[in-house]
Amino acid sequence: MDYNLMDALDLLEREKGVPRDTILEALANALVSAYKRTPGAAEEARVTIDADTGEISVYGQVLDEEGNVVEEWEDTPDDFGRIAAQTAKQVILQRLRDAKREQVFDLYEGREGDLITGIVQQSDHRFAILDLGDAEAMLPGSEKIPFERLERGNRVKALVLEVRGEGKGAPIVVTRSHPEFIRALFELEVPELVDGDIEIKVIAREAGHRTKIAVASNDPNVDPVGACVGARGSRVRQVVNELKGEKVDIVEWDENVTAFIAEALSPARVLDVRLVEPEEPLEEGQIPTAIVIVPDHQLSLAIGKEGQNARLAARLSGYKIDIQSESQDLGLDVQGDEDVEFETVTEGDGDQTSDEGDQTSDEGDQTSDVGSQTSDEEADLGSEVRSQKSEASEEVAEELVEEVVDEVVEETVEESSSEGAE
Length: 422
Fold this sequence. Notes:
By secondary structure, the chain is an alpha+beta fold.
C-alpha cells in the first residue's frame, strides 16, 4: 500500500464523512480473510496497517484452548501487495455504499407518510427505482397502481412507506397504491385540508379503478365537497391525472349513518336506508347490516360494475350493505332473486365511469354488467309503477300496482289460451 491510497482515505473522510480509521479497520479484517485463502496460511492471523506509511504486515498465530496467543510470527506473503490493493478497493466501495445508506436513512428517518417526487430510473414487473435527487427509492410491484406503466424518465409522485436502515436495496420504500396516497395528493391541491378547515374522514380505494373519499367541514362557511373538487373540477382533476385516470368520487361525511350510507352510494339515488337491528349484540369483528332501497332503474348503478360501487360504499360506511330494488321491496320480485350484499372487506376489480370534476356523474353514462334483478316483464311493470307513484300518494300507487298486475295476468292467460287453441 502506498501514500496515494492513504491520501485517498483522507479525501474520503473530508468529502464523504467516512472516518479513515473505520476504513482501515474494515480493510484489516478483510485482509485477514484474504490471507487465510493463500496456500500455507496459518489458521489464525492478524493484520496491521501503519496509519502513516500504509505498510501492511501479516502475523500468523497459534492459540490455546482459551483463545490466548501462545505463538506469533510474521507471515506476510510476497505478493500480498496485489491482494491488498484489490481488497482495499472492495472495502472502500462497500464503506461508501454503507455511508451513503446511513446518510439517506438519517435524512429520511421519520418521514413515513410524506409525499415525494422522483424520476423513474428503471421499471419492470418486479419494482421501479425512483431518483429523488439526494437518494433512490424503490417502488415494489405490489405497491404500484395496477396496470400502470412507468416509463424511464417519467416524473411521478409517491408516498414514503418505509425507511430502512439495514438490508439490501434502496433504503426508502414508496407506494402509489395505498389509500393514504390519495390523502397526500389532495393535501397538495387543497389548502383547506392543510389549514384544517376541512378534513378527509374516510378513504375507500381500489387502486387503478376507483376511489371514494368522505370529507367533512370544520368551518360552516366552507363547502367540503366543493373545496376538494375546485373551480370546474380543477383540483380533483390534478389528482386524477396523477392517478392516470383513476376515478375519484367525493361525498360529504354525515354523522347520521343512514344519510351517510345513502351519500356513499352516490351517484346512485337512494330511496330508503334501514339499519338492521341484530338479535344479539355483535361480537368484535362482526359488521352491522343496512338494507338500502333504490329505484329499479338505479339498481345497476348502485351496485356498480362487478359490485364496485357498493363495495366501496360498504368500506366507506363500515356497514354490510344489502341493496334491493323498489320492486323487491314492494314484493313484486316474483322470481325470488337473492338480495345483493356487500361487505366492507370484499375485494374486487372493475371499472366504473364517473365525472372527474364532481362527486357524482351522469346517471345515463353509468352502466353495469352485474345484471338486472327482474325479468323483462317485471322491469316494464316496475317502470310503469314508478311513473305512476311519482304523481300519486302511497294508497293510489298500490291500487295502480294491482291494476297493472291484473293486466299482465290477463294477457298471460289470453296468450296461453290462444296457444292451446292452435
